[in-house]
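tool=predict chain=A
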Amino acid sequence: MTRISKQTLLLAWALVAVPGALFAQTNGSNSPYSRYGFGLLSDRAVGFNKGMGGVAYGMRNGRELNPANPASYSSIDSLTFLFDIGMTFQNGNIDDGRARTNARNTSLDYVTAGFRLSPNLGMSLGLLPYSTIGYQMETSGYLGDGSATTTETYMGDGGLHKLYLGAGWKPFHPVSLGFNVGMLWGNMNHIVQAEVSTTDANSLRRQYDTDVLTYTADFGVQMDFPINKDNELVVGLTYGLGHGIKSNAHFYNQIINSGTILAGDSISTPDAFELPHTFGAGLSWKYKDRLRLAADYEFQKWGSVRSPQVVESDAAIDYRPRTGMYKDAHRIAVGADYVANPNGARWRHHIRYRAGFEYKTSYTLVDGHEGPYTYTVSAGVGLPITNIYSNRSLLNLSVQYQRVKPRMAGMLTENYLRFNIGIAFNERWFMKWKVE
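tool=predict ok
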């Protein structure tokens, strides 16, 4: 093992040991739309495809880690250890039709690693975000006689994270198979508080809290077809297992005056949530190791997923799971990647230029109406990191502009500008040295 590899090994283990703490300290959302469901779902893209609209299902390259389709792990080179880590810096603009609010966030996006176990068999492990929750907003008004004001405050925080371990195997040409199994965990906390400006009036506070801990299972297939010496076509399919989550959801209904709880109810409901079945299909075309074009389609079957809701009647208040709170979600993405000369002698010949576009619909209902749809335009570069031992590592930089557009007048419009930074270490750890 070379000296540079030992240093990279220490760095990799240090970063793998702390991502849980980093996830807990950062929040990638200030959106009121994260109030619904599991929050804002993460894009699951990593350094190489954040600038390509997130295309992944048909992407296959032994120098890149692609956890979105685990069948791609079978292409990892025998001498290679891959380690990839990325962060995002986001500036958001939220417009409710009367006022605009700017918000900035920083988040650790992902930590992944991968290597080959045997010929045509690769392995990967890592941490990925699943969803983020983070918002605070107020609405105010007057009582009927105008004698006092009323204020409703909405607050939420938390999110879910995914730890996975996966493998990809190519039993025969052109078929590769893969799987990721893992753990999904996190906390979702929402608070609604209604207050009246007079001191003799009580306030109502409702809190919805859940600690999630469950498993995940995702499966992938890729088929690579060399058309001729210059062209290759890859087809990819994925399936994410939908299932019930055994975690309990808690609801607290409290009457408060001057900070003192006067009365309240606490209700817990078991098996409150479900994950949706998810289907993905992708296609990529590669020309001379210089140009890649790719397209993805994804379908998430949220329409039949169960989630808890408060049910009130004159006699009692209840909190129980029910269906019909979500909508099936769709996602379409296209992307491109170009390098001038992968065999060139100059550093600039190895720079990768990327661009992409993504469109997706929301899985949530907002006050009974379909949630907003989202457009994202992205671009990026992959800059080679060179040293005396290797020139295969990359600094991946990308920028994304995202517009969240409501389907109905009166709903929030959001615009985001994101800067993504990723470092993909690609080291020849397993090379055998010979001395003559």
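The CA atoms of residues 87 and 192 lie 31 Å apart. Helices lie at 3-17, 19-25.
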